[in-house]
Amino acid sequence: LSERLGGVFERLTRQGALSEADVETALREVRVALLEADVSLPVARDFVKAVKQKAMGQAVTKSVTPGQQVVKIVHDELVRVLAGEGPADALKIDNPPATVLMVGLQGSGKTTTTAKLAKRLKEKNGKKVLLASLDTQRPAAMEQLAILGTQIGVDSLPIVKGESAVQIAKRAKQQAAFGGYDVLFLDTAGRLHIDEVLMDEVQAVRDIAEPRETLLVVDGLTGQDAVNVATEFNAKVGISGVVLTRMDGDGRGGAALSMRAVTGKPIRFVGLGEKMDAIDAFEPERVAGRILGMGDIVALVEKARETFEAEQAERMAKRFAKGLFNMNDLKSQLDQMLKMGGMQGVMGMLPGMGKMARAAEEAGFDDRMLRRQIALINSMTKKERANPDLLQASRKKRIAAGAGLEVSELNRLLKQHKQMADMMKKMGKGGMMKQVAKAMM
Ligand code: GDP
Ligand code: MG
User: Fold this and answer.
1) pTM above the 0.90 mark?
2) Distance from the CA of 372 to the center of ligand 2, in angstroms?
3) Rg for the chain, CA atoms, rounded
4) 347: containing domain
5) ipTM of this complex
6) Is residue 76 part of a domain?
7) What is the CATH number of the domain that holds 334?
């Protein structure tokens, strides 16, 4: 996916401005990316439409690279759509005993997720939890939950053979109330496909159980079918949220976007493995990045930057090799940094650089400083730029006044330039920009 997507962004990056045609092209690819991530067609279509409106409004106005801009718009919109209101993992479990009903197809991970959530509530929230399996379909299903309960140190309802799901639910409610439990999990049976019998049973259980939360458990690798599952369960049973399992696999998680868009219900948790600790609160950023293949794009933006650096470096290296590094050279570097979105933009693009960007900012090295320095250089004559050694007191005063700044600021710039010029002389070819960037910090 992202190679193609990346190609488009790379092209956009080179052009320097977003035209309507560019946005169209990019978004066509975004749509393909979404479909490849198993987002359903109507959802992908709507999503792209929303993004286009946003992108068009901003298109030519901003000075950051167009590719970055499109990535950001697409990513932000994904996060916006995916995010629920409030923290994803805040289950409504006040007024004990609160019942949590777990529904979904067979094999989606209901039983495993039930135990994972029980463990989490016990350990994180200090809740007293009771587990009950209503799975009268599969032979060893009830034992499976009881075993997991023992493993995590959580009580489960004693198994009585021959009861119906509704009967078990009733008994579980009583037990939860009498036993002073905070939370009761009802783990229901699933079918391989949605059918009347399954839905009727779940409805009957729901009416008895009066759950505070009804969580639909969906296999994150399910793909397009997830929409139908979510739509059906939401219409027939009414769900309060979704748990996406098997997100440790290489599914792209597009089901999350589809289900969120179609049901309007938030994704609450993601399952990340078979172990009892392998569950996390749903994070829209993480899944958005995954759906979009953001990592690849970030890498491509880096690559584009490196290409630019290489060209720039080669041209400048010739000058530097001769010991030439004047104010014009410095200015073109500062201009480039601004164009790339300033310090924050340049560093924000690189993984692990956020901290450095912040440190640079604290040291007073921000975009405003870049602009002030550029203003100072602009205020110099051609001669002065080519030969900074000319700058004595009176010229300095004139230049600083011209830029509306203090002489001390000009002195700082000159000192910085001197350091850089010295370093340039020492350096041979290659890695030029990186060294420059480092020197500036
Ligand atoms: P149920 O039929 O819906 O109750 O599904 P189960 O809870 O019995 O899970 C079916 C299988 O999927 C089991 O082997 C689980 O260990 C596995 N499973 C559940 N959740 C996850 C997950 O998040 N990641 C992985 N890799 N496996 C999972
Ligand atoms: Mg089960």
Assistant:
1) no
2) 65
3) 30
4) 295-440
5) 0.99
6) yes
7) 1.10.260.30
